[in-house]
Amino acid sequence: MAVSVCVASSDSQRARFLQNIDSPGKGTRQGGNLTSREVLKKRRLAANARERRRMTGLNEAFDRLREVVPALTGDQKLSKFETLQMAQTYINALLDLLH
What molecular functions are annotated in GO for this chain (predicted)? Predict the structure, then answer.
């Protein structure tokens, strides 16, 4: 078991030291104002927002593809996999018509 000894000269140094003990590897960066935890949280929020935008765009593209690909059933929405399968079948059928 490791024992930590605090020999900090100021309250702020002591607070940083105690914070580092509570969360190893997530202390303050040298010369930075934000703690690593705050930076990581901001990065995670930004990454989550980018992923939401990416998935929204992908889902909208699948919706547009579903509109142009003929479906066997009009009542039920095709899954993404089924949509891709139907698009492939439809494209091959159109190619056969051209040849």
Answer: DNA-binding transcription factor activity, RNA polymerase II-specific; E-box binding; protein heterodimerization activity
Straight-line distance from the first to the last Cα atom of the chain, in angstroms, rounded to the nearest whole number: 76
CA–CA distance, 78 with 76 (Å, rounded to integer): 6
Give the separation between CA 97 and CA 87, rounded to whole angstroms: 15
A 10 A CB-CB count for 93 gives 10
Q: Give this prediction's pTM.
A: 0.59
29-76 residue pLDDT tens: 555 567 899 999 999 999 999 999 999 999 999 999 999 999 877 788
Please determine, looking at this structure, whether the domain spanning 34-98 carries the CATH number 4.10.280.10.
Answer: yes
Q: Give CA–CA dist 88/77, Å, rounded.
A: 17
Angstrom CA distances, 4 to 16, 19, 22, 37, 47, stand at 13, 12, 11, 21, 35
